[in-house]
Backbone:
């Protein structure tokens, strides 16, 4: 082959002759210079294809130098990997084609979406009055600043929530306001108008009152949000949301900036485009309208709606990036799965089928197995109880690790959980069986029992009304049921003595000042139990320890964390418990998290650190924190969200019970053949903008508030909301869960276990099997079970 063959096949032969692009890949690589949408299924080689497209573009277009190629993605790690791959391939092509050597002696630009926005603000912020010497406010810094504002707010923002929860709600609302293009004043006007529409229905039933109350709270939260924005401006601070908002404002108002950026970057790659938000779509479409821009993504893997990703990014791409209708060849697909064996693909394709029916312009392809793919193995188990499900995990993992990979290596394995609270149980079951484990992510760290005990003591030092955390510590001192009832009675007795409402009694008061042994509330209520002497002794010890922890108020966050671990005796408990493997490492990591937070936020308060941890609980992977590098020798335990983009030889998808995965809040579980349960979604969530006010509202369930002519507007609203609308919200929520299931079920190369149990770890009623587990079962066992493991427990 001559060096002048610069087709996709020719370039591939020059830089990596062991591979041959598929026909689909060739079409993507050689696509014309115009807006191009590439819908790439899981594991379909999108990064390789995009790097080859860059090589083809620079080799065949003299005006496209490597430095004029811009690649954008979401994480620094992904941006670094994309940049490294492009540099290596360009260097190899330059060596193989001497005539290109001089022109290829440059590096492409690979950034995160936020870094790209920050660069625009830094270079052109003066146009809108932004000092180029601004300081970036980290997420930890944002939590600390909002905590100061909420703690000093003159009115009670939400009596039903802890201060740290209010901080999280205010920050989330602040992000939504910016993401959807509002100033605080514009958001206030829009919410007030929305509230006036709601008031037309009246408040004669609980449903209407809750909806009105949620909107009133949104308006109340805008006060701290506005103060947050003011303090950032005065301090020369920008957070991640500001980067995008300000960059968009600059680009919209300055045609010269648009022209400069377009001239600088002749070819643009937008990776993971399904996860972009409304404001990111606005910025990028303003800059690269009718430009050589390629967006790559998979609607079936759009799993970040909870953090601002728009449901319509891929669907609306061509509409937003060009004038006129799409032309043939502007939407291409990658459908060969290079990762998964055949049965794993069959199960994943079955689960994804309803998602394809819902898509229009960006329909994800049915994945096809790579040439030479094995059959693969999918085991499906639905056991009687949670303990048996853990046993199935241990059996699968042990057998899988014993098989080997054919290369003399131990196969890699992961257990993926929908709920982080399952981590400690999976971890203990595997460790007791002698299997090394590694819990990945800050969320997993916070679910470690030793860390939860330390956190409970810290929360109680900061908020005396945090009864759920006190209940955890009381459970740890093994009080009997009668003693717990008597302690609650004593708390109400103390509240009455102090003239307070006994229904709002503070349990910590009872722990600080326990009754004498034998005390009971029988004088005021018949048959109340008496508290035992041993219970009083244990409660006094706990109370003394908690007072000692509280006495450290005002010290540094790290010092308060270390004091809590020491005073509560947690480290001694971990060292003395042979089953608490990893507890010491978890405590050390928790101290490291506190140190890292304090380094980012000098002088941080305990309150703001606890709010930071609460946000890590509420937002899946929503906070970056120090975590150890993955250990390939250990079984990795992580959330499904955290697994996106990763792969292993064998994967367990754990707790596939209805209500867990798919997750929903209804008490009754749902048969897999029935429609999903209803969902209230944003309606009662004061931290979220109402769907009618969002920039992507055209692709969300329509909130058609029309009660005109109704004799009883409030009753009509209740019927419509709890019937038709919440049913559509439920369908919308289930699609998000289904996409998450698809991600989970495409991580395994050759072996997979889908497992759940009739009786989950919590709850007294049986749970139906997950619809995703049952759909996989129906698909695989309809094929006579070839290469598929047995189903148990049905």
Residues:
């Amino acid at each position: 082959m001559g060096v002048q063959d610069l087709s996709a096949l020719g370039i591939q032969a020059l830089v990596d002759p062991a591979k041959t692009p598929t026909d689909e890949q060739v079409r993507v690589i050689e696509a014309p210079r115009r807006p191009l949408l590439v819908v790439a299924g899981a594991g379909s080689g999108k990064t390789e294809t995009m790097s080859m497209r860059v090589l083809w573009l620079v080799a065949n277009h003299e005006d496209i130098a490597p430095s004029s190629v811009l690649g954008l993605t979401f994480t620094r790690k992904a941006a670094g990997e994309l940049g490294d791959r492009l540099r290596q391939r360009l260097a190899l092509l330059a060596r193989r084609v001497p005539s290109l050597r001089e022109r290829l002696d440059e590096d492409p630009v690979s950034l995160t979406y936020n870094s790209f926005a920050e660069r625009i603000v830094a270079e052109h912020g003066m146009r809108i009055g932004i000092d180029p010497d601004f300081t970036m406010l980290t997420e930890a810094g944002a939590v600390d600043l909002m905590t100061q504002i909420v703690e000093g707010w003159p009115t009670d923002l939400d009596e039903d929530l802890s201060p740290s929860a209010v901080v999280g709600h205010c920050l989330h609302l602040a992000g939504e306001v910016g993401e959807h293009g509002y100033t605080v004043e514009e958001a206030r006007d829009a919410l007030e108008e929305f509230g006036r529409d709601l008031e037309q229905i009246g408040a004669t039933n609980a449903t209407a009152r809750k909806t009105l109350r949620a909107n009133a709270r949104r308006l109340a939260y805008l006060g701290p949000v506005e103060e947050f924005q003011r303090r950032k401006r005065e301090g020369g601070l920008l957070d991640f949301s500001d980067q995008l908002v300000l960059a968009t404002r600059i680009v919209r108002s300055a045609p010269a900036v648009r022209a400069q950026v377009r001239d600088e970057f002749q070819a643009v790659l937008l990776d993971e485009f399904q996860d972009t938000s409304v404001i990111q779509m606005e910025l990028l479409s303003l800059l690269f309208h009718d430009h050589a821009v390629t967006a790559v993504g998979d609607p079936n893997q759009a799993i970040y709606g909870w953090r601002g990703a728009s449901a319509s990014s891929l669907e609306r791409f061509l509409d937003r990036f060009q004038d006129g209708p799409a032309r043939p060849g502007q939407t291409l697909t990658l459908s060969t799965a290079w990762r998964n064996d055949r049965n794993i693909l069959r199960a994943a394709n079955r689960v994804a089928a309803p998602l394809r029916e819902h898509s229009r312009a960006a329909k994800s392809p049915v994945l096809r197995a790579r040439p030479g793919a094995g059959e693969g193995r999918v085991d499906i188990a639905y056991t009687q109880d949670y303990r048996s499900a853990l046993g199935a995990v241990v059996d699968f993992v042990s057998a899988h690790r014993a098989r080997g990979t054919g290369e003399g290596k131990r196969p890699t394995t992961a257990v993926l959980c929908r709920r982080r609270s399952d981590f400690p149980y999976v971890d203990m079951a595997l460790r007791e069986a002698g299997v090394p484990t590694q819990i990945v992510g800050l969320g997993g760290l916070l679910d470690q029992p030793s860390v939860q005990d330390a956190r409970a003591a810290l929360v109680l030092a900061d908020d005396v009304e945090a009864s759920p955390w006190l209940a955890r510590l009381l459970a740890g001192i093994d009080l009997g049921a009668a003693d717990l009832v008597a302690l609650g009675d004593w708390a109400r007795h103390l509240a009455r003595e102090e003239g307070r409402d006994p229904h709002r009694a503070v349990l910590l008061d009872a722990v600080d000042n326990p009754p004498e042994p034998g005390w009971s509330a029988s004088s005021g209520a018949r048959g109340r139990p008496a508290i035992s002497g041993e219970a009083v002794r244990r409660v006094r010890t706990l109370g003394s320890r908690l007072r000692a922890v509280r006495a450290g108020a005002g010290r540094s966050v790290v010092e308060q964390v270390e004091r809590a671990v020491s005073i509560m005796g947690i480290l001694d408990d971990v060292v003395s418990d042979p089953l608490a493997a990893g507890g010491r490492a978890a405590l050390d990591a928790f101290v490291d998290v506190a140190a890292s937070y304090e380094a980012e936020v000098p002088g941080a308060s305990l309150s703001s650190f606890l709010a930071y941890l609460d946000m890590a609980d509420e937002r899946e992977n929503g906070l970056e924190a120090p975590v150890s590098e993955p250990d390939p020798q250990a079984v990795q335990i992580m959330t499904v969200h955290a697994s996106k983009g990763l792969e292993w030889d064998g994967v367990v998808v754990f707790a596939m019970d209805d209500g867990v995965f798919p997750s929903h809040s209804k008490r009754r579980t749902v048969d897999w053949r029935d429609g999903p349960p209803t969902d209230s979604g944003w309606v009662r969530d004061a931290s979220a903008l109402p769907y009618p006010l969002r920039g992507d509202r055209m692709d969300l369930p329509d909130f058609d508030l029309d009660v005109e002519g109704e004799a009883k507007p409030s009753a009509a609203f209740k019927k419509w909301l709890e019937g038709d609308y919440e049913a559509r919200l439920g369908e919308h929520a289930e699609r998000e869960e289904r996409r998450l299931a698809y991600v989970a079920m495409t991580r395994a190369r050759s072996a997979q276990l889908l497992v759940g149990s009739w009786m989950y770890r919590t709850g007294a009623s049986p749970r139906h099997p997950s619809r995703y587990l049952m759909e996989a079962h129906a698909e695989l066992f309809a094929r006579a079970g070839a290469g598929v493991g047995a189903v148990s427990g049905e």
In short: The longest helix spans residues 713-744. The CA atoms of residues 706 and 717 lie 8 Å apart.
